Amino acid sequence: MNTRGLRSQLKDSVPVSGLCPQGQYGIQDSLRSGFTSVKNELLPSHPLELSEKNFQLNQERMNYSTLRNIQGLHAPLKLQMEYRAARQIQRLPFLQSSNLALDTLRGGDESIGFEDILNDPAQSEMMGEPHMMVEYKLGLL
Amino acid sequence: MALSNLLEIPAAGFNFDNATRNAALEGLFEGQKPKPMKTGTTIAGVVFKDGVILAADTRATSGEVVADKMCDKIHYIAPNIYCCGAGTAADTGKTTDLVASNLAIFSLNSGRNPRVIMAVNILQDMLYRYRGQIGANLILGGVDCTGNHLYTVGPYGSVNTMPYLSMGSGDLAALGILEDGFKPNMELEEAKQLVRVAIHAGIMSDLGSGHNIDICVITRQGVDHNRPYQESEYKDNRKVNYRYRPGTTTILTEKVVPLKLELVQETVQQMETA
Predict the structure, then answer these.
(1) How far apart are CA A69 and CA B246, in angstroms?
(2) Model pLDDT for residues B57-101, shown as the tens digit of each residue
C-alpha cells in the first residue's frame, strides 16, 4: 500500500508518541507483527489509523473552540472543569474503570457507535501485574 | 508504552493491528484472496402520493459466485423508516443496525417518532468519519410528520434527495426506467408497477443483480414489506439428486472400543421449585 500521502495526516493532527512496536516491553513481536521496519514505526499502515486515534481529541477541540467563539471563554472552561473532575473518578489502582461519569458528560449514554460494539475494553484479555501497578500508582516504586 | 506497570488497554472501536500484516501478505495470495460478500445490486426508491416505495433485488455475490439468492436488502431502521443497502453486505447491515439503535434510543428518550433526516445525518457523520472505508451505498425512505422523504447516502457521506433514486451496480438500468416513467403524485399501483419494472431492468441488464424482487411500501398508516413481491422466472431446475443414500460407501472394517468410566463423585442439588 502506498503510504506516502499519510505523512500529511501526521503533521495536522494532535501529536501522538509514534507507533511503537506492539509486543511486550516495547520489543517487536516477530511472530505476530512480522519483521521490524522503520517505515512501520513512523507511518501508519491503514489510512484511518491516525485519524481514529485522535478522533475524540480533535472533536473535543473543535467543539470547545466553536463554543468559545459563540459563548465566550467561560463556557469551555466550565465544561473542561467538569470533565477533569469526572476523569478523576477512578477505582483502586489496578482495576479498570468504566468512566461512566465522563462518558455520560460526553453524551455516550444516548448514542451507540462502533466504540460500544467492537473491542470492548471490559472484555479485554490483557492484564498488567497487580503489585507493580499498585506500587507505581502509590509512588512506592 | 509497554512497561509492565502501566497497562494500556487498546482503545474501543476499530483495531488496526492486522493492517500491517495484510500489507505484508499482499502479493502472496495470487487471486485466491477471500472476497467479501457484496450486494452488487439494484435498489430503487420512489415517492408517490401517500408515501414512499423502496424496492430491491435479492442477489448477493462474493467475487464471481452468487453467495445468497434470497438476500434481504431492505433493512429496518424505525417503524416509519426503511433503508435499502448496496455495497459490502456486512457494512450495510451493521451501519443500518447502528442507526436503528440510535434512533430507538432517541425515541425512548424524547418520546417522539424519529424523522428520516435524523437517520440521514447520523449516517452522514458516521460514513464521513471513516472516509469511505465502510462500503455502504444506502437509499433511505420514510414517512414522518414533515412528509414523505427519500434520501441516498454514499460511502463517503454524500447525501442526495430526489423523488426517485436508484443505487448499486444496476442503478443505470433502473434509473433509465424511472426517468422515463416517473410522474409526481402517482397512485400506489402505478408506483409499484414502476419500481417493479425498474428493478427488473436492473436484474436483466446487470450480472450483479438477480432473483426475486422485494418491495416495501411505507405510508402514514403503516408499512407493507413484501418479500418476495415477484419471484424469479428462472427457477432452479436440478436434474440430478445430489444426496447420497445411506450405505453408498462400503464399510471395510469396524472396530468398537468401549470406554470404561467409573463414577468418581456424585452430588445432588435440590432445585428450588417454590
Answers:
(1) 78
(2) 999 988 888 888 888 999 999 999 999 999 999 999 999 999 999
Contacts of B12 in chain A (CB under 8 A): 115-116, 118-121
A-B CB pairs within 8 A amount to 101
Chain A residues closer than 8 Å to B21 by CB = 32-34
Is any Cβ of chain A less than 8 angstroms from the Cβ of B16? Answer: yes
Cα–Cα distance measured from residue B91 to residue B130, given in angstroms and rounded to the nearest whole number: 12
- Note the pLDDT of residue A13: 46
A135 and B5 within 8 Å at the Cβ level: the answer is yes
| Average pLDDT across chain B, whole number | 89
Cell numbers standing for residue B80:
416509519
Long-range contact pairs involving A33-36 (C-beta distance under 8 Å, separation at least 24): A33/B17, A33/B20, A33/B21, A34/B20, A34/B21, A34/B24
Q: Flag the least confident range among A13-17, B44-48, B152-156, B176-180.
A: A13-17
Does the CB of A128 have a partner CB in chain B at under 8 Å?
A: yes
Q: A20 versus B106: which is more confidently predicted?
A: B106
| Contact with chain B for residue A127, Cβ under 8 A | yes
Cβ within 8 Å of residue B263, ≥6 positions away? none
Contacts with B58 (C-beta within 8 Å, 6 or more apart), sequence order: B68, B69, B70, B71, B72, B73, B210, B211, B212, B213, B214, B227, B228
Mean pLDDT of B158-169: 94
B156-165 contacts at long range (C-beta below 8 A, 24 or more positions apart): B156/B127, B156/B128, B156/B131, B156/B132, B157/B123, B157/B124, B157/B125, B157/B126, B157/B127, B157/B128, B157/B132, B159/B120, B159/B124, B163/B46, B163/B47, B164/B44, B164/B45, B164/B46, B164/B47, B165/B44, B165/B45, B165/B139
Q: Is A33 touching B (CB cutoff 8 A)?
A: yes
Question: Inter-chain contact B23–A24, Cβ cutoff 8 Å?
Answer: no
For the entire predicted model, the pTM comes to: 0.79
Residues of B catalogued as catalytic: 41
Q: Is residue A96 less than 8 Å (CB to CB) from chain B?
A: yes
Identify the three-state secondary structure at position B151. strand
pLDDT (mean) for A22-40? 67
Chain B nearest-CA distance from A82, in A, is: 22
ipTM: 0.75
